[in-house]
Amino acid sequence: MFLVITFVLMALLLRKAFCSWLCPVGTFSEWLWKLGRRLFRRNYLLPRWADLPLRGLKYLLLGFFLWAVASMSTAEIGAFLHSPYGLIADVKMLNFFRFLGMAGAITLVVLGASSVLIQNFWCRYCCPYGALLGLASLASPLRIRRDPQGCIDCAKCARACPSALPVDKLLTVKSAECTACLECVAVCPAAGALSMSAALPGAGWRWQRLQPWALAAGIAILFLGISGYARLTGHWNTNLPGDLYMQLVPHANEARHPMPGERSK
């Protein structure tokens, strides 16, 4: 829960920075599309008629998970967290990979191959966590801004954008797909033409440029500060006794996931 709070707060303040700066799945996805670019000298983009509906898939997945949680009462959520399944959910996830079935293997192969060919396939089309952070990032005061006076229309920013956003045609990037990775800013050859800027109140709204180091510092402060607070206050580690945990581990595959609306047993 502390991590969820951290990443949502990060999205509210610093856009979807978790996805490009911290997410381990995003890192692995980046390795895969870079491998594809090395093998095939390019990555592929799906046509617009396929890209737009597929981008909505992650929001449908997010909606399912939100419905699953919302359909449970507070008592049922508490019962789930303290059920055998909830207590050893980490072991269940480990066992998914240790005893990978045919369906799981095929899914992973398809996702891996797709990520080699299409840049950030999982992040762009499938990740419900990214969908949640993207929606929260719409309230962020940060935006990538382009100065049309300084822009030389080289379109390098658009080609560098991992989310395939038309940065070169926008004055302000407002999309929920923007992950604040600053790739577009890094490749821009025109000094000052592109920047991450914050909307500040004043006599009307004014924009203040944000240095990359300040964004990195903000991410580090939020992540280390909140997780450090949780550790210092004793809220980070479970209070499950070690001997009980070890009794549950051998029976991890016997624990069944309670369905939405069903009281955990």
Order of helices and strands: HHHHHHHHHHHEHEHEEHH
Instruction: Give start-end ranges of low-pLDDT stretches.
Output: none
Helix content: 55-70%
Range of strand content: 5-15%
Rg estimate, integer Å? 21 Å
Strand order of the largest sheet: 2-1-3-4
Query: Can you tell me the overall shape?
Result: globular
How many DSSP helices? 15
- Summing up helix and strand content along with how strands pair, one would put the structural category as alpha+beta
Total beta strand runs: 4
| Major beta-sheet overview | 4 strands, antiparallel
For the terminal residues, how far apart are their CA atoms? 22 Å
Mean pLDDT rating: 90
- What is the number of domains? 2
